[in-house]
Specification:
One of its GO terms (cellular component) is mitochondrial inner membrane. It is found in: Mitochondrion inner membrane. Its main location: mitochondrion. It comes from Pan troglodytes (Chimpanzee). It is a peripheral membrane protein. This protein is mostly helical. The protein has one domain. It is about 75% helix and about 0% strand. Helix 1 runs antiparallel to helix 2. The longest helix has 30 residues. It is elongated and about 60 Å long. The relative contact order is 0.12.
Length: about 90
């Protein structure tokens, strides 16, 4: 039975945890963007030279690999917490 207006006790904590994880991911994106820019961009100009372009591609691929690892890890963590799925199914 679902009671309107009733919020499972664990739901606010789970929401905070999810939002914290999103914020950490956004910080990671920002840090990786800065890192790639500092590493690859010598002289800003109207076009990227081939060295800078290759550097950005490698840096972005590294970022994508890192992001995929983090997402997989978060999924594993969420699977080990049955409270989240039980709270949503009620």
């Amino acid at each position: 039975m679902v009671v309107l207006g009733w919020i499972p006790p664990a739901l606010p904590l789970i929401f905070i945890e999810v939002e914290t994880q999103k914020q950490r991911f956004q910080q990671l994106v920002h840090q990786m963007t800065e890192l790639c820019w500092e590493k690859c961009m010598d002289k800003p100009g109207p076009k990227l030279d081939s060295r800078a372009e290759a550097c950005f591609v490698n840096c972005i691929e590294c970022f994508i690999d890192t992001s995929q690892f983090i997402l997989n890890r978060l999924q594993q963590t969420q699977k080990s917490k049955p409270v989240f799925s039980e709270s949503l199914s009620d």
